[in-house]
């Protein structure tokens, strides 16, 4: 990541936006939060958006708004950031982990149906690394069983499937504006996106202690509001995010054109899917050797989700064993994030590939 290259050219605009908020003295749920909700809602085909404190709260509040609670099960992917599964457990429900597809790392719709029980309350796919989960296939399963779908779109603002943007496909979607996300803030922030205006009204209450007006408290809620300063800055980034996503896609093409596919398995893009490469995850059987070769040439690289959720100590009581979800386990063992940001040049991509090619004998 290279956050500075994103913010540098916008610094004066960011400073002015922050100064503007200071001038008004409206720090909580002011006009920028309302405007950002409106702007993202418009991009997502008129969906109803509610800004919250972070992407994890967005998930918790979304689950709460669908009345997910103790005794319920929510089917999700084991190959994700912990927050996805944590939010389910936080509501007292049980995450039921379903294996992923080997090509795009997203939950495999063909395996979901077998995991549905009378206790299943929702499906929670993740558009992992910026690739959209196969929502049309998941929606068919959900419709057959009358289940709502929550999209965890924390890593995928601007990704789409068949031209429909993520966030506009499920019953509820959640975004994170964590500073490393492809639509970032300069601190924590999140958004809940709802298809149904009544659900959105409940999410709006939940983010503010379960109250519409600070006078009458209708249910136990949260103090989880998107900060006005964050909203002011995210609105600036929103104007650039699609261009940034194009830059990420160009960087992915540059890796392919530089011949990375001869050395590692490239990340796939399903037909009709628009991947925004929040992270660029390539695979290799001897990941450690690749890491050493890259690090020796000063190329940063990182393992994400090296232990899939079903094998995390916190979920040991659920009884999963190694080998239960082999595709996710294989991804956790072999996938490696290579440098990726909107301004990564073809030359830099070539440098990464050369670093690997030079140690080809070791890499194999
Ligand atoms: C897939 C996924 N879900 C949820 C979250 C939680 O977002 P946040 O860090 O804003 O709470 C993140 C990011 O950290 C994420 O990557």
Describe the structure.
- The protein has 364 residues and is an alpha/beta fold.
- Helix content is 39%, strand content 12%.
- The chain has helices at 3-7, 11-24, 31-43, 55-65, 82-90, 109-112, 135-145, 197-206, 228-238, 241-257, 287-296, 326-334, 346-358, 360-363, and strands at residues 48-52, 73-76, 94-97, 120-124, 150-152, 160-161, 164-165, 172-176, 190-194, 273-274, 280-283, 335-338.
- Helix 3 (31-43) runs parallel beside helix 9 and helix 10 runs parallel beside helix 13.
- The chain starts with a helix and ends with a helix.
- It binds pyridoxal-5'-phosphate.
- Residues 54-56, 80-81, 83-84, 126, 152, 154-155, 176, 178, 188, 190 line the site of pyridoxal-5'-phosphate.
Write the layout of secondary structure elements.
Layout: H1 3-7, H2 11-24, H3 31-43, E1 48-52, H4 55-65, E2 73-76, H5 82-90, E3 94-97, H6 109-112, E4 120-124, H7 135-145, E5 150-152, E6 160-161, E7 164-165, E8 172-176, E9 190-194, H8 197-206, H9 228-238, H10 241-257, E10 273-274, E11 280-283, H11 287-296, H12 326-334, E12 335-338, H13 346-358, H14 360-363
Parallel strand pairs: 2-3, 2-4, 5-8
Antiparallel strand pairs: 1-9, 6-7, 6-10, 8-9, 11-12
Helix pairs in contact: 2-9, 3-9, 4-5, 4-8, 10-13, 11-13
The structure holds pyridoxal-5'-phosphate (PLP).
